[in-house]
Amino acid sequence: MRRSAFLLTMTLPLAGCLWRYSLTGGGLPAHIRTVAVLPFENQTAGAELQRELTEGLRKALSSRLGLREAAEERANAVVRGTIISYDVDVPVAFSANPAQATSARRRLQLRVDVQIFDQRFERVLWEKKGMLAEGDYAENDEVAGRRQAVERIINDVIEGAQSQW
Q1: Considering the chain, what percentage of its residues have pLDDT values greater than 90?
Q2: Residue 66: phi, psi to the nearest 5?
Q3: What is the pTM of this model?
Q4: Higher pLDDT residue, 97 or 158?
Q5: Are the C-beta atoms of residues 76 and 33 closer than 8 Å to each other?
Q6: Is the pLDDT of residue 21 over 50?
Q7: In CATH, which of 2.60.120.10, 3.40.50.300, 3.30.160.150, 3.40.50.720 is domain 23-162?
Q8: So what's the pLDDT on residue 80?
Q9: Are the CB atoms for 110 and 131 separated by under 8 Å?
Q10: Best CA proximity match to 51, nearest among 61, 38, 64, 63
């Protein structure tokens, strides 16, 4: 009886040491530690979108998923995508004065295709086509609306990567 109790007390701590839990890389496979975010192909007239989206994704993948940035040929995963559409003139709210036809609030829509590709096993880890994000802005402040839409796209990509348990 004493021997069984002794063995039990010695093996339980060892069993606890064998169990590992890690949040590194979010829901991505454990071997994904580095990432290359390629500039998105831009099929719109909004030249700043490509830079804002690429830089935002790089920062978010590093800070929120703990991935290090690497060159494409050395990265474990590659994020690539296409900016499909950017519509900045979607009216939301109109002026109360019927003599004025201008709107007080506007909404822009940003639509992208995104893919996270595992270079080691040559497979798509996560992909979303036609991802839509919107941003509301005051009539002369398109930049604020664009920031909202880009941030929503980035959040959706991070959530998509984390959902890969």
Answers
A1: 67
A2: 75, 20
A3: 0.77
A4: 158
A5: yes
A6: no
A7: 3.30.160.150
A8: 98
A9: no
A10: 38
